[in-house]
Each structure stands twice: as C-alpha cells, then as structure tokens.
Amino acid sequence: MASSASSQSSSASSQSADKYEGFDLLKCSTVQEGKKEAEVKLPLGYRFNPTEDEIVVYFLFNKIMDRAMPTYDLIKEVDVYEYDPHQLPNGDFKHNAGCNAAYYFANREPFDASEGKIIKTAANGGYWKVIDDEYEVLFKDSEVIVGFEAVMNFYEGKEPNGTKTPFVMNEYRLNPRVVPAHVLNDSIRNKIERYVVCRIINEEVSNQPVIDYKKESLELLLKYASAGTVKDGEPK
C-alpha cells in the first residue's frame, strides 16, 4: 500500500514538472523598448485592458527583473495598503473596458486571519477582505502557472463590522517556480516576495460605451514597444 502511494506521488510530481518543461519566462516576456503612456497612440475605443497572464508576465515579472515593459507609466508604483482606495486619484480609474480600473505596483501586504476570514488592513481604518482562495493564473492556453490572483472587497471601519464599499481589488503575484534558476539571487527573491500588481475597480464609476479589445489592446502596446520575441500572441 505504501509503495502504491509513493508511486502515485511520484507520478503527480512528474506530471507537475512536465508542464514547466521548455517554458522560458525570460523569452516570453521580452520587449525591446517600452514607451510612456503619452507616446502610445491607441485608436479611439481602445483601453488598457490586459489579461491576467499579461499583467504577470509583461509587467510584474519585468518590473521584478528591472527589464523593459510595454509601457513605463500605465502601472504606477503606489503602496495601496497605505491608503484607503477613495484617497487614490480619481484620474487613475480610467482603464479596462469600463474605464473604472486603476493599476498599481505595490508592496504585498501579509494576510491576517480573523475568525476564519482573511483580511488585509489598510492604513486609515479600513480593510480589504479576501473573497475566496487564490486563483491560478495560466500562461495563455497552457497549463503553466505564472502567477496567482487574490480578489478582495474594501470595507470602511473596523473588522468585522465594516461597511462594504464599491472598491474591488485583484492582487497578482508571480509564481516563483517559473523564474529561471540562473537569474535568482537574494535581491530577486525578495522582489518576488514583495512586489504585486493591484487592479482596483471602483464599481460606482459609470461605465462608458467603449469597445472591449482585451487581447488586442496589449498587442498594440507591444507593437508600439517594438516587441522582440512575441509574434501573434506566441513566443517565437
């Protein structure tokens, strides 16, 4: 019986390793030169609306590695847990199809369990409550897990009696397993643990009638940024 259990464990481990075989995150994420938002001339109706894996691969990973990103300033660096979301600039909430999302690089706030509810505190008396377990972020149509996504609601007041607000956050972190071993050092490991991308949506903002080009919007950004290793959505 023990032998059978050991065999099953070994088989599962082998299958898990197979999905990462041949995956080169450095190659898949490479862009030659990013641009500033003002330099990116998107056609009318286009919005910055990246998919989850694009957020992790093209922005978060390249930020951690200090490499070029498709754009330099569409995702600002702000410690969002130092503020209540209504304190963030209204002008930041302009992305996605609904023109009501803001994107930030931030320092990851540790989870805190309280009566079985996972929360992340904010600086000014509110807190973010995690809605569910983390989701796996897969690279394109593959089984490669490049990151993880946590979804939260913001509450004003003290936990557990806070008042729910219209702010929803998706927090994305990198899966350290996909980072090539030869680039890992103490500094990179620290950044992997510390950096996240936070997409904050204000659901009270009226949706504007825009065309939702989810994949195509980032492909245009990559085109304007002279992408070097991505063609038609696939690595060369």
UniProtKB/TrEMBL annotation:
What keywords sit in the KW lines? DNA-binding, Nucleus, Transcription, Transcription regulation
Q: Cite the PROSITE patterns for this sequence.
A: NAC
User: Where would one find the signal peptide in this protein?
Assistant: none
The answer, when asked if Repeat is one of the entry's keywords, is no
Q: Which GO terms describe its biological process?
A: regulation of DNA-templated transcription
Q: Which InterPro entries match?
A: NAC-dom, NAC_dom_sf
For this protein, the record's Gene3D superfamilies field holds: NAC domain
Q: Which domain of life is it from?
A: Eukaryota
Q: Which Pfam families does the annotation name? A: NAM
Instruction: Please state every residue range assigned to the domain named NAC.
Output: 42-203
Named from the GO MF annotations, one term is:
DNA binding
Record protein name field? NAC domain-containing protein
Task: Give the lineage.
Answer: Eukaryota, Viridiplantae, Streptophyta, Embryophyta, Tracheophyta
